[in-house]
Amino acid sequence: MSKKADIALIGLAVMGQNLILNMDSKGFVVCAYNRTVDKVTHFLNNEAKGTNIIGATSLQDMVNKLKTPRKVMMLVKAGSAVDDFIAQLVPLLSPGDVIIDGGNSEYQDTARRCNELKSKGLLFVGSGVSGGEEGARYGPSLMPGGHPEAWPLIKDIFQSICAKSGNEPCCEWVGEGGAGHFVKMVHNGIEYGDMQLICEAYDLMKRLGLTQEEMAKEFDKWNREELDSFLIEITRDILKYKDGSGPLLERIRDTAGQKGTGKWTAIAALQYGVPVTLIGEAVFSRCLSALKDERVKASKVLQGSDAKPAVKDKAEFLNHIKHALYCSKIVSYAQGFMLMREAAKENGWNLNYGGIALMWRGGCIIRSVFLGNIKDAFKRNPDLSNLLLDDFFKKAIEKGQHSWRQVVSNAILWGVPVPALSTALTFYDGYRSERLPANLLQAQRDYFGAHTYELLGQEGKFVHTNWTGTGGNVSASTYQA
């Protein structure tokens, strides 16, 4: 009798192929399937040649070749394609079988699918998979969530194929329902923020007259200091890269694309009422970059600053940029963990924040030494309400905030846009403020809409004032503005 597979994987784009090859290299028998069956044949005859990987010509054939309880993983486009495959799989599977969605699905879709499949006796997992094509092949960061009963069935496979930080796997069970995909969404949002911050640092260096080679040397230096990370490393490599026509970077059109997970993070922040300002600015910066034709026209007619970017001590200012980037990065992660904490409270998830930092410590796009410090912070205090209050991060910002303020204030005086660096600083100043001008805002709301306010020392008691003498004394109770 032919061998039975430990797991099946649907979707043979490069990520899918690499994940299958990763599983095979760890000793698991994988059954590969793709809606276009020719892709299966090509994969088996080329990339998978000489391996233990087997193929399937149909979903029924794939299911027949699986050990029970069956485990089927999908790496297909998020949205209707996932629902279509689930609909086709349900009649072929048995109670206790596991369906895993490894795509970038919206977490509420994952929660819905969990509920729908639970009624049919099937176990559903929505797993974040980060690390790109290379990570999929040699060790991604994996963030599984969904039906807890599924975890013991897939744990060995997932923790074998994932990246390792020291000897610890960058994969652990996240939580029920859409928890895994929510954590992956926040990961991607933080990725947006990190990338935008680096772009702003690059832009400032460029306007100060540094060559790409000089910038590459600076990023290389930073990568050996506090900012040691994958994104700083690849930025260095991009700046050094040349083709037959010279440095490539300056010939790339300055319009950024996006697939939606950063936008989802910003939307979730608004829904949960968490000020995740840096990721929001990173998303809007991509939107602004897309207005290329309008920006070209505006550049010819809109007046900016007359001050030319210049500093007395370039080496000192480059050090200021490094600290500004580091402080802003701390704020970005602090906001991301604030969002996860609020979502966990609303959805009843028991998230392990130190464990999440460890999952991101290797294999994924935002991997950095910095994440080890986050893990340590939650180890010191599992109930930490905000990373900014941890001694390590508090001291880092105390050390770097003068530089941070120098960079942001100079950039504004020069007319250089730094939306992520500046919003991070504004958030920090707002978060550390005992009093904000929201007292005036509440008075305004009460003036025009009778929305009431609380007096200091009388919290919990909402009162309304007839500010003009001609309004009513009845407060609004039907809507919030």
Automatic annotation (TrEMBL):
- Record: residues binding substrate: 104, 130-132, 187-188, 192, 259, 286, 445, 451
KW NADP (keyword) present: yes
Tell me which InterPro entries the record gives.
Answer: 6-PGluconate_DH-like_C_sf, 6PGD_dom2, 6PGDH_C, 6PGDH_Gnd/GntZ, 6PGDH_NADP-bd, 6PGdom_BS, NAD(P)-bd_dom_sf, Pgluconate_DH
Keywords in alphabetical order, please.
Answer: Gluconate utilization, NADP, Oxidoreductase, Pentose shunt
Keyword Oxidoreductase listed: yes
Question: Known catalysed reaction(s)?
Answer: 6-phospho-D-gluconate + NADP(+) = D-ribulose 5-phosphate + CO2 + NADPH
Its GO biological process annotations read: D-gluconate metabolic process; pentose-phosphate shunt
Which protein is depicted?
6-phosphogluconate dehydrogenase, decarboxylating
Q: What species was this sequence derived from? A: Hermetia illucens
Supply the source organism's classification. Eukaryota, Metazoa, Ecdysozoa, Arthropoda, Hexapoda
